[in-house]
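lol ok so funny story. i was supposed to be doing the assay writeup but got distracted and ended up predicting the structure for this chain instead. priorities right. anyway since i did it might as well share w the group, maybe its usefull for someone
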Amino acid sequence: MDVPGSVPGSVVGVAFLLLAILPGAAFTWALERQAGSYGVSFADRTLRFVGVSLVFHVTALPLEYLVASALLPVGATFGWAEMFVVWPSLIVLFAVPYALGTVLGGLYRSRTSRDEHWRWIRKRLSPAGEERLLRMALGHDPAPRAWDHLFADRSVVSTKVVCDGPGDQRAEDVKAATA
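and the output, tada:
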């Protein structure tokens, strides 16, 4: 027997998980059926499922609220007025980072060619200003980072050896240590 406010049983939990992820999964599968898979791993595809599902759920929140309030025995603790305050907040919470990520990603991708795709922002930034903005927002080495390697299909290990002594002796020590 489920107690109100408790964690749902395993079957109910799986059903909610499927309902939460299914819109993004359906969209991604349909897109890849038409456009083809473009070399993404399972982790990338899962993150896409979650991200696209978020867009669908935020967009359809009033409809989902209507269905949930009709089907589920919830109290009147969260009414329509509160829902219409939360809904625009969720849209802004998603739309602002998405727009910022799109602009910064587009500027970073085309930073060497400075093509015309981002001319509306580039006419306000000098090349040096654009470089400062990208360095401030994305860091000195934007990609790939350790987080990218965590979800990679292959593990990558790299080392950096700094020698500060007599060159020949340090090189021999490193060669002996790696043999």
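The two ends are 63 Å apart (CA to CA). The chain has one domain: 10-143.
back to the writeup now i swear
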